[in-house]
Here is the input.
Amino acid sequence: MRKTELILALDVNSRQQAMRWVNLLYPKVTIFKVGLQLYTACGPKIIQDIRKTGAEVFLDLKFNDIPNTMANATRELLKYQVAMFTVHTLSGPDALKEVAQACRGSRAKALGVTVLTSISSNFLKDLKIQRSLSQEVLYLAKMAKKCGMSGVVCSVPQAKIIRKYLCRNFIIVCPGIRPAGSSRGDQQQIATPQAAKDGGADYIVVGRPILEARRPLAVTESILRDIS
Ligand code: C5P
Here is the structure.
């Protein structure tokens, strides 16, 4: 049976708040996601602070640039000893290959963001993209695999489809996770932790359902039970 792990999205704006969450939840949660907000607020030192506790860091900066810039930024990021990081698959195959090449010999797993879980199929229609949302995600995931990415970030329904076509050791990370009863927020493609596990996710990313909960520890424990 595939193991599904919980990643907490540290979507907060200070070191103090971030470390409060890490200290509360580690080692129940062993991977913490540093995204645009926290990284912009605290800089790379926050990664070191989190790693000092023994926890791992998923650096979610979603690079999207020309191949040369992506490769150089990846080489800088690898100095932080993160476990995983993200780039946009829409940066194209040349950029993805450069990133994969830069990662050779490092412990960091490069993940390609397919279509953001906040994007609806109507937006793809507006852009005159012919493929359905699922077809588009599968196309981008196959491209990411071919270019040497370690895995992808996608919604739970898309994870199920990708699992059918790509090998078991291709990492699938699913955000847009909402335990029953929690509010959708800006996410369009949502699923429960249990559905994510059943869909073949290796990792689920959860932010607001824990960060905004009245009893965050209880919510975390309940999610961990759902995916165990
Ligand atoms: O609060 P919520 O659980 O919706 O947070 C989801 C987290 O996952 C956010 O930090 C967001 O940046 C990230 N994410 C996402 N969709 C993606 C990739 C990352 O929601 N495709």
Observations:
- Residues 135 and 158 are 9 Å apart (CA to CA).
- Strands lie at 5-9, 31-34, 56-63, 84-88, 109-113, 151-153, 171-174, 203-206.
